[in-house]
Amino acid sequence: MIIITLCLEQARAAASRFPSPLLSARRLTKVFHLGTAVYALTGVTADIFPGEFVIIRGPSGSGKSTLLSLWAGLDRPTNGQVMMDGVSFDTLSEAALSDLRRRRIGYVFQLFNLVEHLSALSNVALPLTFSRTPHWYVEERCQRLLAWVGLSHRAHHLPRQLSGGEQQRVAIARALANEPALLLADEPTGNLDTHTTDEIMGLMAQINAQWQQTTVMVTHDERLDVYADRVLHMADGQLVAVSRGGRHR
Ligand SMILES: Nc1ncnc2c1ncn2[C@@H]1O[C@H](COP(=O)(O)OP(=O)(O)O)[C@@H](O)[C@H]1O
Ligand SMILES: [Mg+2]
User: Which of 110, 160, 195, 205 could form a disulfide linkage to 190, CB 3.0–4.6 angstroms apart?
Assistant: First the structure.
């Protein structure tokens, strides 16, 4: 009995030293057919571990957005596998995949993608619209999220009454509304000036540090490497290098 307990303890210790990936790409290929074939990804293999802040960096056209949209389950690969918590997306129906996306993944876009005629608060509440979450809890959680991103005083403003940085804060709060396991962001600072970029990156870093929010962010800005645990470098549809980010230096 003692031996079994010891073995279990050792197994647990080993598992915590080598955690299972939250998200994986296995030999991912994506080909778009536009008369001629465009090879957006040609065999990308990578793992993302729980709690990591990972940046995907590479020049325009290198396949960053394609990889992120496959990881988000927004599109299907031509070949290869995407897995989340060990479950391969190709075993899931479209309905099951969109359910997983709604429950487990938050997505932030370069152009914010807020709904123009809804207030900041209603935008944040959108992912919870069709959930069974009680109304009072939705209201309270969304108010708390807006406060957390520093926008309590803008709760009833429309997107066009907000600055770019404020709109992106609302979009980040919205992406977190359903407590996703995974936060994906495609060039979230691509439309912002340097000062606002630093504010948004500070916020994303704080979310990751405080809530151990697993975050994968695409950018072509090497200045942002300082915020990451790891940087995956892409070129011509391939993962060409992995480097340490500046977060722990
Ligand atoms: N929906 C699509 N249809 C056709 N070609 C596409 C599509 N999406 C991306 N591509 C092509 O795939 C390549 C990689 O694109 P993308 O993933 O958007 O790169 P990045 O985000 O690094 O700029 C580019 O050559 C792009 O033109
Ligand atoms: Mg892109």
Answer: 110
Q: How does pLDDT run across 66-82, given as a tens digit for each residue?
A: 999 999 999 999 999 99
Question: Are 165 and 158 within 8 A, CB to CB?
Answer: no
155-177 core/surface letters (b: 16 or more CB in 10 A; e: else):
bebbbeebeebbbbbbbbbbbbb
Sorting pLDDT into bands at 50, 70 and 90, what band is 197? Answer: very high
Q: How far is the C-alpha of 226 from the C-alpha of 66, rounded, in Å?
A: 24
pTM: 0.91
How many Å lie between the centroid of ligand 1 and the Cα of residue 89? Answer: 21
Atom of ligand 1 nearest to the CA of 218: 21
Span from the CA of 66 to the centroid of ligand 1 (angstroms) = 6
Residues with CB under 6 A from ligand 1: 32, 34, 38, 40, 58, 60-66
Give domain 20-244's CATH number out of 3.40.50.300, 3.40.50.150, 3.40.30.10, 3.30.70.20.
3.40.50.300
